[in-house]
Design a protein that fits this description.
With 409 residues, the protein is mostly beta strands. Helices cover 1% and strands 56% of the residues. The two termini are 25 Å apart.
């Protein structure tokens, strides 16, 4: 089965006076505009289209830019939507040590996935096959989630040109859940079914030596943070947790970069089932599975209050040319991903597996336009446990195709 996340056909039209390279000093004020059509396909959400536009303002003394704006609209024929507005402003305050990022989004999934809670959840062989579009068997592991939210982050650099910074964030979010007749979610009714309004408060500390910030070739990014979501209404809050993440980048000659990441998070309290696959941090991501964590695994395939991911990637620069007067680079990548979830305890809906780590591997093509805009086409293969009719467990290979913005890490 081919599964995708929000995808981008990295076909671009650039206008304006030009954008300076992220790794080169800016000597004059410049504005860059990039407009892109967006397209995706997967077997659950179907074919989708939309558009994305970005504006970057560069001025001398501001790296990688002074301000950036992004607007996106995207929808599929089967009900997935992701519409976003984003503003990123650097060098705020009298000493220019503050960075503000605010974005709001409307997201909905009519085919979000739920396979149970815990590290040993399996698919039943009866439902682990292809069905016609109107066959109710397709909905066994599916439900609807509508989730509008706003995320605002203020980051403060602890000294002039210091790699140390601290941040605080607020994330109001509303979640609405609907189940399908005969679905696993309807049967199990985990905590979070009532949805509702949540306000998550996040804070953390970062040590960042990446060069450059976008598409790094060397350095590291280490982050330690936490989040708190007080109980307000429904079943959307009432939990807190800590997370840690470390990314590293090392050049191997002039054309090859070895990149790696390890990260983990643990949440305590009343954790909604849909929050178990969301990460906190300066730039929150989603998933155990999908384009940002384990490529080849269905998004949300495994969930629990605790989760950990490890990634290794080899990026090889293969070609460069000029597109509309700006640099356009292509790199090939090979990668290996792995994940585990833990801490479900009595809430686990399946016994612990013999294989506690869920691996994946794959290859990709990445394009970097003007050292500022990154588009990735990754293909990953993972293993998905399927319980057969005679009670044996088989590891079924699964395939994921992802066309997305930005590197996975």
């Amino acid at each position: 089965m081919v599964t995708t996340v929000l995808s981008s056909l990295f076909i671009s039209l650039a206008t304006g006076q030009g954008v300076a390279l992220a790794s080169e000093p800016v000597v004059e004020r410049r504005v860059g505009v990039l407009a892109m059509p967006i397209g995706s396909f997967d077997t659950d959400d179907g074919l989708g289209f939309g558009g994305r536009a970005e504006i970057i303002l560069r001025e001398p003394g501001h790296e990688p830019y002074k301000a950036a704006w992004m607007a996106q609209g995207f929808a599929t024929f089967r009900g997935y939507q992701n519409h976003e507005l984003r503003y990123d402003r650097l060098d705020l305050g009298p000493e220019g040590r503050n960075r503000l990022m605010v974005y709001g989004a409307w997201r909905q999934w009519l085919n979000d996935g739920y396979w149970g809670v815990g590290n040993g959840t399996v698919r039943e062989a009866t439902y682990a096959q292809e069905f016609e579009a109107d066959d109710p068997h397709r909905k066994r592991y599916r439900y609807t989630l509508k989730q509008p939210f706003v995320h605002a982050t203020l980051q403060h650099e602890l000294g002039e040109s210091s790699p140390w910074s601290v941040y605080g964030a607020v994330n109001p979010k509303y979640s609405a859940i609907e189940t399908y007749d005969g679905s696993l979610l309807e049967e199990q009714q985990p905590y979070g079914m009532a949805g509702g309004l949540a306000i998550q408060l996040m804070a953390g500390v970062i040590h960042d030596t990446r060069e450059p910030e976008i598409a790094p070739r060397q350095g590291h990014l280490i982050e330690l943070g936490g989040r708190l979501s007080p109980a307000l209404q429904g079943q959307a809050g009432g939990f807190a947790g800590v997370m840690a993440s470390a990314r590293g980048y090392r050049p191997l000659g002039t054309r090859v970069v070895a990149a790696g990441r390890i990260m983990g998070e643990y949440l305590a309290g009343d954790v909604p089932f849909y929050e178990m696959v969301h990460w906190s941090g300066l730039r929150p991501i989603q998933g155990i599975g999908g384009s940002k964590t384990v490529r080849g695994m269905s998004f949300g395939r495994f969930r629990a209050p605790g989760k950990a991911v490890a990634n290794a990637e080899l990026r090889v620069h293969t070609a460069s040319w000029t597109l509309l007067g700006r640099p356009f680079d292509v790199e090939l990548a090979s990668f290996a991903d792995a994940a585990t979830v833990f801490g479900a305890s009595d809430d686990a809906t399946a016994p612990a597996p013999t294989l506690p780590v869920h691996p994946a591997a794959g290859v990709g093509v990445h394009v970097i336009f003007d050292h500022s805009f990154v588009g990735c086409l990754d293909v990953g293969w993972a293993l998905d446990p399927v319980l057969t009719a005679d009670g044996t467990l088989e590891q079924e290979p699964t395939l994921g195709l992802y066309m997305a913005f930005d590197h996975a890490f």
